[in-house]
Amino acid sequence: MTRPSQPPSSVFWRSEGARADVPKVLAVEFIRRMRGASQPCLLRGADGAYYVVKFLNNPQHPRILANEMFAARLANLIKLPVPQPAFIEIPEELVRGNPQMVIETGRSLEPSRAGLAFGSRFPGEPGSTLAIDFLPDRLLGRVTRLGPTFLGAYIFDKWTCNCNGRQVLFTRPAHQESGAYCFNDGEWDFPDSPIRSIYPRRLVYESVRGLESFEPFLSRIENLASRVIEDASVDIPQAWCGEDPSRIRWLVERLVERRRRLRQMIVDAKNSDLRPFPNWE
Question: Model-level pTM?
Answer without folding.
Answer: 0.84
